[in-house]
Every structure is written in structure tokens, then in C-alpha cells.
Amino acid sequence: MYLLSKYSCFLFYLSAGMNHILSPDFYIGLIPNYLPYPYVINILSGLLEMSLAFFILFPKSLKIGAWGIIILLIFFIPSHIYFIQLGSCVPNGLCVNPIIGWLRLIIVHPLLIFWAWNVGKLNLRLTR
């Protein structure tokens, strides 16, 4: 079960990071307008997601990867709040029912944080 969680976490963040690079327009509108250089922020966050995904693969760097993902997800919270403030609809982009925006913020996002934390925590149990 641990390996399934670890490798699915790796694949999830690798593909999420790649999507930032391959479909930047999808993410640009989700970056709060008070942050400068949204294109650069998007590309850097995608590269960081991919890097942290690879850190998860190796026992010596797994803890760094898991905590890095947690910190990155915390940094993404303003983007989720901004999306809700926009009425869960980005002009020329993603539009969903506002309930979905709230569910992403209060349920999905914490579950993603818990998943990354659990992957790092499980690694500690296996190495003791």
C-alpha cells in the first residue's frame, strides 16, 4: 500500500508539473493579479512540482520532496482563494460551480497535503 501511495503521488505531481508547462494558459488566470510575473510563477511552480515529484522516488530525498510538496501546496492557497473570489470562473478559462471552488479549498487541498505528509511519514516508519 505504501508503494502505491508513493508512486501515485510521484505520478500525480509529475503530471501536474508537466501540465503547468504544456498548458500555461489554464493556470495563468488562477494566479492572483497582485502577484507579478504570472507566467514565470506558473513555469517555476510546474518545474518545482516535477522536481519534488522526483525527490519522492528516492529514500534519501523523500522527506524533502514530501515537505516541499506540502509547502508548495500551502503557497497555492491564495490561488484557490482568488479563484473563489472570481466566482469560480476565470475569464476565458476554467468555470465551475462555486461549490466546487470551496470543495477544492476546504476538502481536496487538505487531502493533498495529508497525502504528501503521509508519504513522507510512511518513509520514516519503513527506515526505523
Describe the structure.
- The model has no long low-confidence stretch (mean pLDDT 92).
- Helix 1 packs across helix 6, helix 3 packs antiparallel against helix 4 and helix 5 runs antiparallel to helix 6.
- By secondary structure, this protein is mainly alpha-helical.
- Helix content is 80%, strand content 0%.
Number of strands: 0
Helix content: over 70%
Biggest beta-sheet profile: none
In total, how many domains does the architecture comprise?
1
Mean pLDDT, nearest integer?
A: 92
- The H-and-E topology, N to C, reads as HHHHHH
Using the CA coordinates, give the radius of gyration.
15 Å
Please state the structural category.
Answer: mainly alpha
User: How far apart lie the N and C ends?
Assistant: 18 Å
Number of helices: 6
Give a quick rundown of the structure:
By secondary structure, the protein is mostly helical. The protein is built from six helices and no strands. The chain has one domain (2-127).
Salient structural properties:
128 residues, single chain, 6 helices, 80% helix, 0% strand, globular, mainly alpha
SSE blueprint and pairings:
Elements: H1 2-22, H2 24-28, H3 38-57, H4 59-75, H5 77-85, H6 98-127
Helix pairs in contact: 1-3, 1-6, 3-4, 4-6, 5-6
